[in-house]
Amino acid sequence: MTQQIVSLTSQNQISIPVNMSRVWGKVKPKKLMVTLVGEELRIKPVTDFRLLKGLLKSNIKLTDNQLSEARRKFEKKWARKI
Asked: What is the pTM of this model?
């Protein structure tokens, strides 16, 4: 376990030491989740959903009419069950 003392500013901000932030590599997270467990703060990176762009790409192409029909069928068969 790595430990280091950091300062807490009057605006309740801390800086993460460079040697600890290297664990995230070159692409640093923009958001972090801070969890309070007893008197301990735990910090984890949060994946930015915009980074997932293109992950679910498909070759399926639908016209507006086909998409509207698919939505209608979904609402009729699935959405009402919830």
From this structure: 0.50
